[in-house]
Amino acid sequence: MVEGPLPMNSSPINGLTPQGKRSLIEEELKASVAWLIRLRWLAGVGVILTAWSVNAILKLQLFTFPIYLIGAVILVYNSIFYYIDKKIQSNPAATQEYTRLAHWQVGLDWLAMILLIHFSGGVESPAILFFVFHIIIAAIFFTPRTAYIYSLVAVLLVWLDVGLEFLGILPHYPVEGFLQEALYKNIWYVLAILLFFGATSLISAYLAISINQRLRRREEEVMELTVNLQRATERLQALNDGARAISSTLELSEVLNRLVKNTAEVMHVHACFIRLLDKTGQHLERVADFGLSQNFPDNGSIDVQNNPLIQEVLSGKIVNIPDTSQTSLLQYPATTIREGIHSMLVAPLIGKSGPLGILGVYSHNVNHFSKDDETFIAAIAAQGSTAIENALAYQAIEALDATKSQFVRMVTHELRSPVSVIKSLLRTITAGYAGGLNEQQRDILERASKRAEALQGLVDDLLDLAAGKADIKSHGEMEPIRLDDVIEQVVKRFEISAKEKEIDLIWENHISEITPMVKATQEGLDRIFNNLVSNAIKYTLPKGKVTVKLTRVGNEACVTIEDTGIGISEEAQAQLFQEFYRAPNAKEMEKEGTGLGLVIVKDLVKRFGGKIGVKSTVGVGSQFTVILPLLLQ
Amino acid sequence: MNKKSILLVDDDPDVRLSLRLPLEAAGYEVKEATNPTEGLASMKKEKPDLLILDVMMDSATAGFQFALDLKSEDPKSELKAFKDIPIIMLTAIHDTTSLRFSPDQDYLPVEVFLEKPVEPDVLLATVKKQLGE
To answer: Is the bond leading into B117 cis (omega within 30 degrees of zero)?
Structure first.
C-alpha cells in the first residue's frame, strides 16, 4: 500500500517540533482537499459541457451517454467529498480522515479519467493529456514516493486501455469526424503515443514533485524560523514579566519565591531552586524552591568546600549537567535521581559585591538544556541577583531604621523624666511654694524654667517622631473620625491666644452635604491641626488674619490654613519638612522651636493616606493645605 | 478642722519634693512613701484622705498593680478599707509612646491621671476636686 500523503516521518529539522511541523502540513492538506473539491465542480460540469458542445456545435459523433454519466458521477462523488470535508472540518484532530479523503479523491479521479479517455477514443482521445494535470495534483498532495506510484498507475492504466483496445479485447469508441483513420490500430502511432504519454507523465511528476519538495522545505524553514522567533519572543516576554514581578516587591522571601516560580515556568522545567550564601560565605542555605516533591530532602546548609558543583558555579560559571547519572559533580546523586531529576542547569547569582548564591533548574529529561537555555538562565540570574540584592539592602535598612527608632525612643524617655522633674522643682519655687524670692532670683529661675520647657518640647517632638516611625499602633488604632469636629476644637483652643495677639481667627466649614469622616487617630489629627494653626498664629504679626477652611474636592477633604504672616521663602519651602529645619525668618521671629513640628505633621498626614502642601510669599503670608481621603459610606 | 492628709507614693525624691511643697503650702498634711509596700504600711497606720501614686515605680506597672489592689471589688480583699480613697495617678509616660495608658474605668479604677511635669496650680486644683472641697 502507498504511504500516507504526509512526509511526517521525514527527518526533523532542528528547532521545529514534530507537532509544529505536523500542524503546518495538516493545514496545507486541509486547504488542498477543499481546493480540489472546488476544482472538481468545474471538472464535472466541464466534462458534461464539453461532451455536449462537441456534439452540438462541432457536429462530431461522440458516444456521449457514458461521458455524461462520468460527468454526473464526478459531481455526485464530489458532493459526497464536499459533505465529508465539511463534517471533519470541525474536528481538529482529523488528520487520518483527511489522508483517507485525499486517497479516495485521487483514486476516484483516476478511475473517472481512464473511463473518460476510454469513451472518448482511447489512444485517439485528446483528453489523454488531462492526466498530466492529475499527476501534478498528486505531486502536490502526496509524498514523492506516493506521487510516483500514482503517476505510474496512471501511465499503466492508459497503456492497459490502449493495449486492450488495440487487441480488440475492449471496444473502441472513436470520435467520428475527429480523425480520418482509425489510429488505434496503427501500431506505430499507438507505440509513439504510449511512449510519449508515459515520458510526459513521469517527467511532469518528477518536475512537480521536485518543485513541491523544494517549496515544502522552504515552508518548513519559515515555520522553523517562526517557531524560533515565537519562542524568543515568549522568553523575552517572560523575562520582562518576571523582572516586573520580582522588582515589584522588596520583601526578600517574596522576591525569592517569585523568582523560582517564574524561572520554572519560563524555562518549562518542573523545578527550580535558589540557595544563598550565608554571612560567612562558606555555606549555602536553601532559601526558596518551586516544584520539588515533599520527599525531596532538605539537605540544609551546604558546605561550599565539599561541593565541587557549587564551587564551579560560584566561580561564575553556568554548569549544565545533561545527565545526572553520568556526573561526579553532585553531592547527593542518589536523592537527585530518586526525585526524577535527570538533567540540571545551575547559574551563579552575582551581586555588585560578589557571589550571592546559586539559581538552578531541574528537568525530568536527560539532555534538556541547550546553549540557548544557558544564555537564558544567565539573563534570569543577572536580573534575579539585582532584585535579591535590592531586597537584602532593603531588609538591612529596615532593620537599621527599627533599631534607630528604638534607640531614639529609649533615649528620649531617659531625657524626658529628668527634664520634667527639673521643671516641676523650678515651678514650685517660682510659684512661691518654697518661700519668697527676690526679683533677680525669680528672673533667673524663670529663665531656667523656660529653657527646661523648651527642652521638654524638643524631647516630646523627638519622641513623637520616633514613635511614629517605629510603629503606627503607638498612636492608637485608626478609626473613622469627624474631621470638622477636630478642627473646630483646635480652632477654639487658639481663640484666646489669637485674641491676645489681635489676630482674626476664622473657621469656615464648606462641607454640609455629608459628614466629613476620615480614617485617622484622634490624637494624630489633633496634632496635625494644632501644629498648623499654632504656627499660623505664631508667625503672623498682630492685627493679621488666620483662616482655617474645610472644603471637599471629589472624594477628598481639603483643609487650608491660611495666614497673613511673615511667609516662607522658596528656598525654605523646599526644606520645610526636613528634621530640625527652621526657616531663618521664623527663627528670627521666634527663638524657641524644634524644627520637628512639620516633620511630624507630614508623617501623620502621610499615615492617614493624605498629602500636605505649602504655598507662600515672603511678607504676604502662607497657606498650608492638608488633603485627606474622605470615608464615603 | 483637721488637716486633710495626702499620701505620696513615688520613688523619685525630687518628684515628691516638687509635689509636697505646693501641697503643704495649701495646708495639707503630706506623707511620703517610695514604693507600694511602704505606702501600704503607711496607710494601715493612718488612713489618708487621698493617694497620689506614680505609675512607674519598681517596675513599669507597679503603680497600676497597687491601684488595682486597692480598688479591688473583691469583698474579701484585705484592702477593702481603702477602697474609697481617691487616687490621682501620675504618669511620666508621654501620651504618644507605646506604653500609653489612658483613664479606663473598666481596667483601672483611678479617679484621675496627671501627666508629669505637674503644674502646681493644676495639682492643687485636682486635689481639691478629689477631696470635694
So the answer is: yes
